[in-house]
Specification:
The protein is of the alpha+beta class. Helices cover 16% and strands 39% of the residues. It contains 6 helices and 25 strands. The strands form 6 sheets. It has a 5-stranded mixed β-sheet with strand order 1-23-25-24-22. A 4-stranded antiparallel β-sheet has the order 4-3-2-21, with no helix packed on it. The chain is elongated. The two termini are 35 Å apart.
């Protein structure tokens, strides 16, 4: 993750004297905030032994189960059901797999959590895999696939296309047997690819590894004891860029939802008991918000920070939004794996400006993550909290490799 900031006064570029104008601060429709919260946070899907399932939204402010989004029945013959984003649109598909036959089926999921239409692809992947999991370890927008056998310790990784076609194995190795939960997750806001978490229910042992661009295990960043839980599931149940972990014990029906950081020490957010389930799945089924909704969310977060310090709120400028989006798209097009400023900050500015500030960033997945990062940097925070600024514009764009570029422009208007 990278950020840069820049500030230019009107006098410094000799453009004082333009006719000024004001833009009224827009009202943020409640529906847009709901859309963003739904997209940023996963749903939790509970699967019973007979194949019946129920999915719920999670109230991100409390991590409580919210409204029920879907209910139905899947075949009980599937031994693994894994969420995986195969086309990079931010919405998960579901991969159903039977370890006894080796058969698999990849299906689309509606925003209501229901399986939709014919299978995207079906076939065989070989018998005996105990874990199939979608993990983002390659510099593109979609997930890759990891297969693991807890009996033999066999471990494979694959690229998978938007049509569900598997490439040749990227990695074929062993990583030790008896890991009962194997999954990828974003632990820190600065992670540009998932880390791999391994957990043994019999001992409570947990390890976290970085992953190479082919999915091989890299540096071990944590070696902890997390307790003897039957199943661990990654799920982003709030609206930040980091995943949480759901711990579940099928015999006692106890659960807890925790934050996890690089050190591996989980912090419990919520705990309690659920009914008896065979599987718990974290699933994102909502479409990504529009550019306008993203801009409104950044504005909300910025003005929340300003209000907490007694500063006047900024108004969102359509002119600045347009210029910020143009520059983010340019950064994404050239995709240098780093962010950089506009060479001339006065380009595309509305008439009557007196001061310009600009923040850029690269790699952050959500508005909350990028605003948090900007607020953690003194120079970026100074732009966000500058009392003299009156207007803001923001734009984000995704490169062909799946990386998000951000541009935030501030002005003082007369």
């Amino acid at each position: 993750m990278r950020m840069l900031t820049r500030l230019v006064a009107a006098a410094a570029v000799a453009v004082i004297g333009f006719t000024g104008f004001a833009i009224a601060a827009p009202t943020v429709p409640a529906a847009e905030a709901v859309v963003f919260d739904n997209w940023a946070a996963d749903e939790l899907v509970f699967v019973r032994s007979n194949g019946g399932f129920t999915s719920y939204r999670v109230t991100y402010t409390t991590s409580k189960l919210g409204s029920r989004t879907a209910t139905g029945t899947w075949s009980s013959s599937w031994t693994t059901i894994a969420p995986i984003d195969i086309n990079g649109d931010g919405r998960d598909e579901l991969l159903f797999y039977n370890a006894r036959t080796g058969k698999f089926s990849i299906r689309k999921v509606t925003s209501k959590g229901q399986v939709s239409g014919a299978a995207i692809r079906q076939g065989t992947l070989g018998k005996g895999w105990t874990t199939l999991v979608g993990v983002d370890f390659h510099p593109d927008a979609n997930d890759e696939l990891i297969l693991y056998n807890a009996t033999t310790g066999a471990y494979r990784t694959y690229n998978i296309s938007a049509k569900g076609v598997f490439g040749k194995p990227l990695v074929q190795t062993t990583i030790g047997a008896r890991w009962t939960s194997v999954f990828g997750m974003r632990i820190n806001a600065g992670d540009t690819r998932d880390r791999l978490v391994l957990h043994q229910s019999s001992t409570g042992k947990a390890r976290i590894h970085t992953l190479t661009s082919k999915g091989a295990l890299g540096t071990r960043t944590a070696d902890e004891n997390w307790g003897r839980w039957t199943r661990l599931v990654p799920a982003n149940v709030d609206t930040d860029a980091q995943d949480e972990v759901v711990f579940y014990n099928s015999s006692s029906r106890r659960y807890k939802i925790t934050d996890v950081r690089t050190t591996g020490a989980p912090r419990t957010i919520r705990s309690g008991t659920w009914s008896a389930y065979r599987m718990v799945i974290g699933l994102n089924v909502d479409p990504r918000p529009t550019t306008s909704q993203v801009a409104q969310e950044v504005l909300r977060l910025v003005n929340k920070e300003r209000k907490a310090r007694g500063l006047k709120p900024l108004a969102l400028s359509s002119t600045l939004n347009k210029e910020a989006l143009r520059w983010s798209r340019y950064q994404a097009k050239v995709d240098r794996n780093q962010c950089f400023h506009r060479p001339d900050l006065t380009v595309g500015m509305p008439a009557g400006w007196r001061l310009i500030g600009e923040n850029v960033a690269y790699g952050y997945r959500t508005p909350s993550a990028v605003v948090q990062a900007w607020m953690s940097s003194p120079s970026h925070r100074q732009n966000i909290l500058r009392p003299s600024f009156t207007h803001m514009g923001v734009g984000d764009a995704t490169s062909s490799a799946g990386y998000l570029y951000w541009t935030q422009i501030f002005t003082q208007q007369r």
